[in-house]
């Protein structure tokens, strides 16, 4: 029973990792480091895959999934997705294109400065 859950979670996690990897490469290629929408998409994208891992495991186990197996499926799926994301980010920003790290830092500073200036202009009360 655990093997079925682990296999399903790993497969769904790999699919989610490929989707997340595509988003990371897209952000890197178009240099959209300060895009709020893409940043939110990167944070939200893995959640449906974790739910899909639970759903697929439940359907494989004849519509019965204990809490232990549900948490295991979700956790393993997320682990695979975030592990691949970590490796991809490391390879892109440290090994392949170290200059992109400086560009991303500059974009983040500009975004923070823009938000700080906007908050100073608006008055609450």
Describe the structure.
It is a single chain. By secondary structure, the protein is mainly α. The chain contains five helices and no strands. α1 runs parallel beside α4 (67-96) and α4 packs across α5 (98-121). The chain is elongated. The N and C termini lie far apart (59 Å).
Short account of what is shown:
With 125 residues, this protein is mainly alpha-helical.
Mean pLDDT: 88
Instruction: Report the principal-axis shape.
Output: elongated
- Counting helices, strands and paired strands, the structural category is mainly alpha
Share in β-strands: under 5%
- The number of E-state strands comes to 0
Please, how many helices? 5
End-to-end gap = 59 Å
Fraction of residues in H or I helices: over 70%
Low-confidence stretches: none
Oligomer: single chain
Q: What Rg do the Cα atoms give?
A: 19 Å
Spell the H/E element sequence: HHHHH
> Which sheet architecture does the biggest sheet show?
none
Features:
125 residues; elongated
Strand and helix layout:
Elements: H1 2-30, H2 36-44, H3 46-60, H4 67-96, H5 98-121
